[in-house]
C-alpha cells in the first residue's frame, strides 16, 4: 500500500465539491477526490489536468477504500453531497456515505459535512457517529460556484478540537476581507489565490454540534428575503413605472454604489442587462418563467422561527412568495377572473419614486436582518450555544451570497453592544429606518392601492410597526381566548405571571384569580 499523500479528501463532485477541491489545491493542499458515479470523477480529473495550474495536487479515486487510504492520518474528509434529512429519523446521502466510510476509518479521523444539512441532522449525526468512533463535524459553506472556487464563507460547528485540525485549511480557502475596512478582497486567479496574510478569513468557530449548520440555514433564510425584496423593487419599477430591464439595470447599478452595495444587487444589475441567448431582441429576464424553486433552507428557517416563537414574518413571507409563484397555472386562471383596483393611483415624479423604492428596500432589509439575528439569538438559548453575532456578521462580509457593505454596519453594531437585543435598537439602524420610513410607507401604500403585491416590503413594515408599538391589539385576542377556551389572561395593573379568568357564562361574569 503506497504512503498516504493527500492532506484532505472530498466526496461529492458536483458544482460545490469540484470548486472547493480546486480552491484547496490552489492553496497548496493535496486533495483526494471520490464521487459515487465514477465517470463524474474521471471527467473532472481530465478537465483539471487540461486546465488547472494545481492539477498535480488533485488525486482521483474510483474506489472508496483507495480514496480513504490515500489521505494522511488523522484523516479529514469533506462531504459535499445532497442533503435532505430533516427529521431525526431521516437518513440521506450524508448518512449513506458516512456509513460506507465507517469501516474504512480509524479513531480520530474526521468527517466534515459541508452541505446544507439540517442542523438537527448534524446534532444527531455527531452523537450517532461518535458512538461508532467517528468524529462528525458540520460546516456551512456559502458562496455558490464562484465562492467555493475562490473563497466561500465557511461556518463550522461541532467539536472544538476537530475545528483546530480543520482550521488551517478552512482559513486558507475562505474568502478574505480587508482587516481595516471589512471590504472583500477578491481575485479570481487560480495561480494567485488571496492568502491569509492579505486579509481576515470569512470563517471562525461558530459553536457546538449543529451551530454551524444552523447559522448557514439562517444565512439562507436571509438570502431568501434579500432576493424577494430585490424582486419586489424590480416588480414595482416594471409594473408601476413600466421600465425596461436595461433601464432597471442602471438603477440597480447606481444603488450598488451606496448603502445597498451587495453581491445580490450586483448580480441583479448584470442579469437585467442580459439579452436572451436564443433571441437577442428580448431581455433574458423576460423569458424566464416566474416560478421559483426552493430546496428547503428558507422553509427550515421559518419553521424554526415558528417553533421558537420568533417573529421572523418577513423571512417566512419570502418562502410563501416562492410557494405562490409556483402555482403558476392556478394564478394564470385566477388572473382571468379576479380583478384588481379599477383605477391606477399616480406615483408622482419617477425619479423620486425610484428613490423611495430604494429607501423601502433598505429599510425592509434592515428588518429582515434584524429578524435573522433575533432568531439566532433565541436558537443559542434553545440549543445551548454561545454565538458571537459580531463574528457571524463579520463572516458574512465576504464570500457568501448575502455579502454586502451593510454587514460591516452589523459587525460594528455588535462590537458596540454584543448583547444587542435587536438590530433596530442600534443607533445607525434606528436612524436609517427613521430616515427611510416615510418613503417606505409611501411605496407600500402605492403598491397596495395599485394592486401590486409586495409581501416582503409590507411584512417587514408590519414587523417594524409592531416591534415599535408598546400596546398591540393582543389584549383583545387574549380576552377572546379566555372567552371561548378559559385560556386565562394577565392584567395591565397586576404583576406579570398572575393569571385571571372571567367566568363568562355566569350572569355577573366574576373574575377568578388562578
Ligand atoms: N449549489 C449551491 O449553490 C450550493 C450548494 N450547497 C450544498 O452543498 C451540497 C452539494 O451541492 P451541489 O454541489 O449543488 O450538489 P447536489 O446537491 O446536486 O449533490 C450532488 C452530489 O451528491 C452526490 N450524491 C447524491 N446522492 C448520493 C448518494 N446517495 N451517495 C453518494 N453521493 C450522492 C452526487 O453524486 P453522483 O454524481 O453520483 O450523483 C453528487 O456528487 C448540498 O448539500 C447543497 O445543498 C451549499 C452551498 C451552495
Ligand atoms: O445554499 C445555497 C446558497 O447559499 C444554495 O444555492 C441553495 O440551494 C439556495 O437555496 P434554494 O435552492 O432553496 O434557493
UniProtKB/TrEMBL annotation:
It is an enzyme of class 1 (oxidoreductase). Substrate binds at residues 116, 142-144, 219-220, 224, 295, 322, 481, 487. Its EC number is 1.1.1.44. Pfam families: 6PGD (PF00393), NAD_binding_2 (PF03446). InterPro entries: 6-PGluconate_DH-like_C_sf (IPR008927), 6PGD_dom2 (IPR013328), 6PGDH_C (IPR006114), 6PGDH_Gnd/GntZ (IPR006113), 6PGDH_NADP-bd (IPR006115), 6PGdom_BS (IPR006184), NAD(P)-bd_dom_sf (IPR036291), Pgluconate_DH (IPR006183). Homodimer. This is 6-phosphogluconate dehydrogenase, decarboxylating. It comes from Phycisphaera mikurensis (strain NBRC 102666 / KCTC 22515 / FYK2301M01). The gene is gnd.
Amino acid at each position: 500500500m503506497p504512503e498516504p499523500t493527500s492532506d484532505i479528501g472530498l466526496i461529492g463532485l458536483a458544482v460545490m465539491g469540484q470548486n472547493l477541491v480546486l480552491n484547496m489545491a490552489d492553496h497548496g493542499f493535496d486533495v483526494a477526490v471520490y464521487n459515487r458515479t465514477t465517470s463524474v470523477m474521471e471527467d473532472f480529473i481530465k478537465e483539471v489536468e487540461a486546465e488547472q495550474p494545481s492539477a498535480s495536487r488533485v488525486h482521483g479515486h474510483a474506489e472508496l477504500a483507495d480514496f480513504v487510504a490515500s489521505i494522511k492520518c488523522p484523516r479529514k474528509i469533506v462531504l459535499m453531497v445532497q442533503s435532505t434529512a430533516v427529521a431525526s429519523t431521516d437518513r440521506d446521502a450524508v448518512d449513506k456515505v458516512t456509513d460506507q466510510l465507517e469501516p474504512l476509518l480509524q479513531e480520530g479521523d474526521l468527517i466534515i459535512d459541508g452541505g446544507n444539512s439540517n442542523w438537527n441532522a448534524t446534532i444527531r449525526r455527531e452523537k450517532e457517529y461518535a458512538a461508532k468512533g467517528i468524529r462528525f463535524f458540520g460546516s456551512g459553506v456559502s458562496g455558490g460556484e464562484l465562492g467555493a472556487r475562490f473563497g466561500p464563507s465557511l461556518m463550522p460547528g461541532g467539536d472544538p478540537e476537530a475545528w483546530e485540525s480543520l482550521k488551517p485549511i478552512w482559513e486558507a480557502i475562505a474568502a478574505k476581507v480587508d482587516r481595516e475596512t471589512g471590504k472583500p478582497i477578491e481575485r479570481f486567479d487560480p495561480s494567485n489565490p488571496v492568502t491569509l496574510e492579505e486579509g481576515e478569513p470569512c470563517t471562525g468557530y461558530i459553536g457546538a454540534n449543529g451551530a454551524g449548520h444552523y447559522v448557514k440555514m439562517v444565512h439562507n433564510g436571509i438570502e431568501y428575503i434579500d432576493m424577494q425584496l430585490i424582486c419586489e423593487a424590480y416588480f414595482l419599477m416594471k409594473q408601476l413605472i413600466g421600465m425596461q430591464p436595461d433601464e432597471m439595470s442602471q438603477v440597480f447599478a447606481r444603488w450598488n454604489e451606496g448603502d445597498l452595495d451587495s453581491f445580490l444587487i450586483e448580480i441583479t444589475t448584470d442579469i437585467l442587462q442580459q439579452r436572451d441567448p436564443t433571441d437577442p431582441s428580448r431581455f433574458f429576464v423576460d423569458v424566464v418563467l416566474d416560478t421559483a424553486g426552493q430546496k428547503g433552507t428558507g422553509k427550515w428557517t421559518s419553521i424554526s422561527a415558528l417553533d421558537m416563537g420568533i417573529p421572523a414574518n418577513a423571512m417566512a413571507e419570502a418562502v410563501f412568495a416562492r410557494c405562490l409563484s409556483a402555482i403558476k397555472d392556478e394564478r394564470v386562471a385566477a388572473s382571468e377572473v379576479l380583478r384588481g383596483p379599477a383605477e391606477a393611483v399616480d406615483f408622482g415624479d419617477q425619479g423620486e419614486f425610484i428613490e423611495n423604492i430604494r429607501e423601502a428596500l433598505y429599510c425592509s432589509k434592515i428588518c429582515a436582518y434584524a429578524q435573522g439575528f433575533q432568531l439566532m439569538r433565541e436558537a443559542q438559548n434553545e440549543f445551548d450555544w454561545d454565538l458571537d453575532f459580531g463574528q457571524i456578521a463579520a463572516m458574512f462580509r465576504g464570500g457568501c451570497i448575502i455579502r454586502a457593505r451593510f454587514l460591516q454596519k452589523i459587525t460594528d453594531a455588535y462590537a458596540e453592544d454584543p448583547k444587542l437585543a435587536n438590530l433596530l435598537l442600534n443607533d445607525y439602524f434606528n436612524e436609517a429606518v427613521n430616515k427611510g420610513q416615510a418613503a417606505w410607507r409611501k411605496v407600500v401604500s402605492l403598491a397596495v392601492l395599485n394592486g401590486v403585491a409586495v409581501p416582503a416590503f409590507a411584512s417587514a413594515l408590519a414587523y417594524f410597526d409592531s416591534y415599535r408599538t408598546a400596546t398591540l391589539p393582543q389584549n383583545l385576542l387574549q380576552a377572546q381566548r379566555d372567552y371561548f377556551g378559559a385560556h386565562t389572561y394577565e392584567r395591565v395593573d397586576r404583576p406579570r405571571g398572575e393569571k385571571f379568568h372571567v367566568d363568562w357564562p355566569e350572569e355577573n361574569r366574576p373574575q377568578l384569580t388562578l
